[in-house]
Design a protein that fits this description.
Length: 149
């Protein structure tokens, strides 16, 4: 449980930088939503920036990217700007449960906020998640925490 909390904290710790164009934002959001709703796990995992990723963080991110994919509908999805508080938190090095140090390898420029609704015979439920988005080689990616060297 502590591992998941640490990795989630790293997920939610962005940097406040402006980047991308409205067209890039829309294209990224549309591609992400389409992949999620089709249940395309390979496409969802392709959004991850995994260079030097901490193995436990990578496993967690892959699980979170694909959880509910293909069965749930995205009610709302948007890219939002980061706050100064997010910047401060994101720049901190975190200690994992195994004693290793990890940090986001790229400086996020935006945050992807997703609200999901699930309906079945037992009723309905909703959940939300946030991921930091960075730019690498002109492409939006979700950076996975990497080992600090």
């Amino acid at each position: 449980m502590k591992t998941k909390l640490l990795i989630a904290a790293l997920c939610l710790a962005p940097f406040a930088l402006q980047a991308g164009t409205p067209a890039q934002d829309k294209e990224f959001v549309d591609k992400y939503k389409a992949a999620y709703e089709k249940g395309d796990k390979a496409a969802l995992e392709a959004f991850l920036y995994t260079k030097d990723a901490h193995p436990m963080a990578l496993e967690f991110y892959k699980m979170m990217q694909t959880e509910g994919a293909g069965t749930a509908k995205i009610a709302k999805i948007e890219l939002v700007d980061l706050t100064p508080e997010d910047v401060k938190k994101a720049s901190e090095v975190q200690t994992g449960p195994d004693g290793s140090k990890a940090q986001l390898p790229l400086k996020p420029t935006k945050k992807l906020k997703i609200s999901i609704e699930t309906k079945d015979a037992n009723g309905s439920s909703s959940s939300s998640s946030e991921n930091f988005i960075a730019e690498k080689d002109g492409k939006y990616v979700i950076p996975v925490p990497a080992n600090v060297k």
